[in-house]
Specification:
It is a single chain. This protein is mainly beta and about 375 residues long. It has a single domain, classed as Porin (Beta Barrel), CATH 2.40.160. Helices cover about 5% and strands about 60% of the residues. The longest helix is centred in the N-terminal third of the chain and has 14 residues. The two termini are about 20 Å apart.
C-alpha cells in the first residue's frame, strides 16, 4: 500500500497549493525524502484562474476589472537516494512563490493596464538520519532566486493618477530546512514536522514615477518562514488517510520599494495583514496492482482584511482528485483541483476600492516517477 499510494498523496497535496494563501505555490513539501530506495520524479502543474472584480465608490463605482489573473505553469523535480541503512539525501527543485496580475486595457477600471509579476526558483538539499525505532531527523540548505517587476497605473481617491513602474533584478538568498518524522511501515503511518526558514533578499530596483522621476534603490524583503505538519496512516486494507497543516508567516512579508512608499504615503506593492494556515485532509485507495486513486479537501480562512490590488485573493476552499498508474519501475500520476477563491476587498492608500467575489481556479497536475 505504501508504494502505490505515496505518489497520489504527494500530488493531491501539491496541486492543493496552487493559488494558495499569499503567493504560495509549491507548499515546500519534503515527502520525497521518505520514498524507498533511489527515486527520481518530474512534475508540472498548470493553473487557470478566473479572477474578476468590480470597483466601488469613489472609484468608478460598478466598473468591472476584467479577468486579471493569467494562466500559469509551475514545474518541479526531485531526486532521493540512500547512503546506507540509516542515512539518505534528497535534492528538490521547485518554484515556491509566485504572482502574476495583469489588468486588461479598455475596461475603464481604475487600475486598467496595471500589471505585476513575481517569480522564484529554489534548490533544496536535504540529509536525513533514520534510526531503527522509526524516528528520523533531517535538514539542509535552500538556495532561492527571486525576480519582480510591476507597472501600477491607479486612479486615486485624492490627488492625480499614479503612473509607477519598477523593475527588480534577480537576487539569490540562502535559507535552511529542519524537521523530524516518525514512521511505522506496517500500518503505513508517517508523521513529519518541517520548518522552512525565511530567506532574505536585497534586490536592486529601478523605480519610475511619471512627473516625479526615477530612483535606483535596493528593495529588502524576506520570503516567509513556514511550518508543515504532514501525516498519513492506513485505515483499512489498501486505504490511506492523509493530510496536513501548513502555516506561513505572511504577516511579516512586504514588498515595498522606497519610491512607491513615498508617493503612496507608505503603502506596499504587495503585503498581507495576517498569517495563512492551510488545512488539507484526504483519502487514498489502491484499486489493484496498477491503479490507485485519491481525493482531498483544503481550506484557508477568509480574513476579511483589505488586500492590495496586486494580490486580491482572501482564503479558499478546494477539492482535489488524483490517480496513479504504476507499471514496473515507472509511475505516472495525474491530479485535478478545483479552487473556490474567497471573496476579497482591495484598497488604494487604505481606501476600499473594489470587491472581488465568486472567483475560482482550476489546476491540473502531472508527475512521472522512476524507481531505480
Amino acid at each position: 500500500m505504501k508504494l502505490y499510494l505515496k505518489s497520489v498523496t504527494v500530488l493531491c497535496l501539491a496541486t492543493g497549493t496552487a493559488h494558495a494563501g499569499g503567493i504560495d505555490r509549491s507548499g515546500q513539501s519534503v515527502d520525497v525524502l521518505f520514498e524507498d530506495g533511489r527515486y527520481l520524479e518530474f512534475s508540472a502543474v498548470s493553473v487557470s484562474p478566473d479572477l474578476t472584480g468590480e470597483a466601488r465608490a469613489p472609484f468608478a463605482n460598478g466598473t468591472g476589472s476584467g479577468d486579471i489573473a493569467p494562466s500559469y505553469f509551475r514545474y518541479g523535480a526531485a531526486y532521493k537516494a540512500d547512503i546506507n541503512d540509516n542515512w539518505s539525501y534528497a535534492l528538490i527543485l521547485d518554484e515556491p512563490f509566485g504572482a502574476d496580475v495583469d489588468y486588461p486595457l479598455g475596461t475603464g477600471y481604475f487600475a486598467s493596464t496595471s500589471d505585476a509579476e513575481f517569480t522564484s526558483q529554489a534548490l533544496t538539499g536535504l540529509l536525513r538520519y533514520k534510526d531503527d525505532s522509526g524516528f528520523s531527523v533531517y535538514g539542509g540548505l535552500r538556495i532561492q532566486s527571486v525576480e519582480a517587476n510591476a507597472s501600477v497605473n491607479f486612479v486615486r481617491p485624492v490627488g492625480p493618477p499614479l503612473f509607477y513602474s519598477a523593475d527588480a533584478d534577480v537576487h539569490y538568498g540562502v535559507g535552511y530546512v529542519a524537521g523530524v518524522a516518525y514512521e511505522k511501515p506496517e500500518i503505513a503511518l508517517r508523521v513529519s514536522l518541517t520548518y522552512n526558514s525565511e530567506i532574505s533578499h536585497s534586490v536592486d530596483t529601478v523605480e519610475n514615477v511619471i512627473g516625479v522621476g526615477s530612483l535606483s534603490t535596493s528593495t529588502e524583503f524576506e520570503t516567509p518562514q513556514s511550518v508543515n505538519l504532514e501525516f498519513q496512516t492506513g485505515v483499512a486494507a489498501d486505504t490511506l488517510l492523509f493530510g496536513g497543516v501548513r502555516w506561513v508567516d505572511w504577516s511579516d512579508f512586504a514588498l515595498d520599494p522606497s519610491l512607491y512608499q513615498t508617493v503612496t504615503g507608505g503603502s506596499a506593492l504587495l503585503s498581507y495583514e495576517e498569517d495563512v494556515v492551510t488545512y488539507t485532509l484526504g483519502i487514498g485507495r489502491r484499486l489493484n496492482e496498477n491503479w490507485s486513486v485519491a481525493a482531498s479537501l483544503a481550506y484557508e480562512e477568509n480574513t476579511q482584511n483589505l488586500f492590495t490590488n496586486l494580490g486580491p485573493a482572501d482564503g479558499q476552499e478546494s477539492i482535489s482528485l488524483a490517480a496513479i498508474y504504476s507499471q514496473g519501475n515507472y509511475e505516472i500520476t495525474t491530479g485535478l483541483r478545483y479552487i473556490r477563491i474567497g471573496n476579497t476587498t482591495t484598497g488604494v492608500s487604505g481606501t476600499p476600492a473594489a470587491n472581488f467575489d465568486d472567483n475560482d481556479a482550476i489546476a491540473l497536475g502531472f508527475k512521472v516517477a522512476y524507481r531505480f
